[in-house]
Write a structure and sequence with these properties.
2 copies of one chain form a homodimer. With 251 residues, chain A is of the alpha+beta class. In chain A, 49% of the residues lie in helices and 12% in strands. The model of chain A has no long low-confidence stretch (mean pLDDT 97).
Chain lengths: 251, 251
């Protein structure tokens, strides 16, 4: 269609990077692209923390790369301004959290799109809302780690990852509730991948899972996700509270 | 830098559109760009609903435009698949909500970036998580309205909106807590705009606000935001519950 759509459609996640640094000018350009994303509030309720200290990158991301960009939902500086005028912004609202998170991650997506267009590779780190970043990054109150991307020169050339067919994801004027056959066909290949992984587990591990009532790949996937979220969610809620979002006050 | 960064940096929100339809091929291209955004889950936990029915657009957005694209956090189809295998995905987790919301809105941001690169204009509608869309759009359980953008041929040519200076938003390896002077200078202009609006209120309205303890533009802004969130949040929580996110179970 045009170079922009071509670049978006060509996206692949890169997980291996050459050690080469990224030029300051390039970092500046991708961050400017980030800050030009739409933002609902006049006050831009997010900040970027650009990390190029190798020890910090090692601590927050499971990849070796020259740069990581953290985006935080940030009400700190605006609260400070409001305090000068005895005004208090209602941070702790479900809609405010969603709106600020939206602003933060679309700004980070612009960073990704800009970086890829300049030949760089990127990988998002999903569990960042559960990470303890307050001390290593000096985060003040009213700041919540929302999203993280690692950026570098690609050291691999993977294929694009498969997506669901458009008919599964795109609806027209009304949600089309799929038939059982559609649902089966859309996820068949993914189910087969999980089933193969399950079949290839060491026999003792598989037997142990089966004794615990976990008899197929999808059940194991869900069990693993339960464990992943259980380990993470306490930290997510702690980080949300530090960021100004006390969930207990919502209910 | 290159056409992609140039297009990102040139973003302006468009709020007035010509009535001309958008070609199917164009809509297809921008949606394909959307679905190629990174996604953490193998199962793409979102769907797009493309709306070109004028009555529906009128109902969900305060703009007249040929197309609106709603993105929903969507666990419906994957849950259906898992049920065939007696597996239950743990939807109701804070981290799962954030991850799925992240995937949904960055897919929508790709839609925006692609649309703008093709000469179209866009405006995000922020209060969509609070809208009652279940009946008009036939949303099933486990679907949550996450983000909405209106798309059309621009009928206006506005300047780009101001952003905070880079020093306010970009940190390097560590969050730099700003000085009072920095905070004042970054938001001075915004404070002046609100103060001017407050000064220009009808005298009776301003007197009434002052009797209620609201004596400047920033205090009025915060009071308005409290009202906006108070009206919205009950609906947000209802929509979250329909989407599979029972916040009461988090605490």
């Amino acid at each position: 269609m045009n170079p922009v759509v071509e670049s978006l459609v060509a996206h692949r996640t890169i997980r291996s990077f050459r050690p080469d640094a990224i030029e300051d000018e390039t970092v500046g350009a991708i961050l400017e692209a980030g800050t030009r994303a739409a933002t609902g509030g006049y006050f831009q309720p997010y900040s970027f923390i650009v990390i190029d200290d190798p020890k910090l990158i090692e601590r927050i991301a499971p990849y070796s790369a020259p740069v990581a960009v953290l985006v935080v939902v940030d009400h700190h500086r605006f609260q400070r301004f409001l305090e000068f005028h005895d005004a208090v912004f209602p941070i702790n609202s479900p809609l405010n959290l969603l709106l600020a998170y939206w602003d933060a991650v679309i700004a980070l997506q612009n960073v990704v799109v800009a970086a890829e267009s300049l030949g760089l590779g990127t990988v998002y780190i999903g569990d960042v809302p559960s990470k303890e970043l307050g001390e290593p990054l000096g985060l003040p109150d009213d700041v919540f780690p929302a999203g993280l991307v690692v950026v570098g020169h690609p050291a691999q050339d993977p294929d694009r990852r498969r997506r669901l067919p458009a008919e599964a994801v795109v609806h027209h004027n009304r949600y089309h509730v799929p038939t059982d056959g559609q649902v089966r066909s859309w996820y068949r290949r993914y189910g087969e991948i999980l089933e193969k992984e399950f079949d290839e587990l060491p026999e003792e591990e598989r037997a142990q899972l089966q004794r615990a009532g976990i008899g197929n790949g999808l059940q194991k996937f869900c069990r693993d996700m339960v464990g992943f979220f259980d380990r993470a969610d306490h930290h997510v809620l702690t980080n949300l509270a530090r960021g100004g979002f006390e969930i207990a006050d919502w209910v």
